[in-house]
Amino acid sequence: MGFYADHVFPRLMELCLGTHKFQEQREHALASVRGNVLEIGFGTGLNLLHYPKTVTCLTAVDPATLLRNTVAQRTAELSFPVELLHLSAETLPFEEGRFDSVVSTLTLCTIPDPVAALREVRRVLKPEGTFVFLEHGRSDDETIAKWQDRLNPIQRIIACGCNLNRPIGALIRQAGLRLDRLDRFQMPGIPRIAGEMYRGIAIPA
Ligand SMILES: C[S@@+](CC[C@H](N)C(=O)[O-])C[C@H]1O[C@@H](n2cnc3c(N)ncnc32)[C@H](O)[C@@H]1O
Prior knowledge:
CATH topology: Rossmann fold
Strand content: 25-35%
CATH superfamily: Vaccinia Virus protein VP39
Bound molecules: S-adenosylmethionine
Number of domains: 1
Oligomer: single chain
Distance between the termini: 36 Å
């Protein structure tokens, strides 16, 4: 980490990913989350205020510590307990079948080995549990996808490891999860290379 990753990028994340449009999407994506929940790639806690009342307990993992005071303020307002752990999603220290829901928003783009992380998601989910996601990724339009491939090296530098071109649905399936629901849409007001969205629910296959 460095000054840009620790202090500048988290504020850019707040600005770009905390807009009203993204808040609406977070609320929509998280509506079915319940019980004992794990969130991977917690970031600055932008999801916290959008969890429904059906959540009883949240464990959140992220290797980075971002905007500590903002996160503390957000967690203090919640009606359920939150445990924040600074570790990577590729190796989770939880027993099999522990969580009712696992959440990932705008994180599968950045995790260095997303399939390893998704296999861990599958392992720690209860058999009837759900993986709930809201992600951006590879376009189905070949012209846009080519631009995503071309611009990806620059994106990885300016957005601290974020990739524009990951095929999110395929990665989820590759990890042994079954897509129960997948909504594809373009995020309004965002260039298509970064705004091709994947929102949905997957279950252990
Ligand atoms: C673009 S931010 C999104 C943050 C948050 N999920 C949101 O919706 O605002 C991507 C996050 O993934 C985290 N991340 C990077 N590598 C990770 C890993 N191996 N496991 C879990 N999270 C990771 C980053 O630290 C960062 O907080």
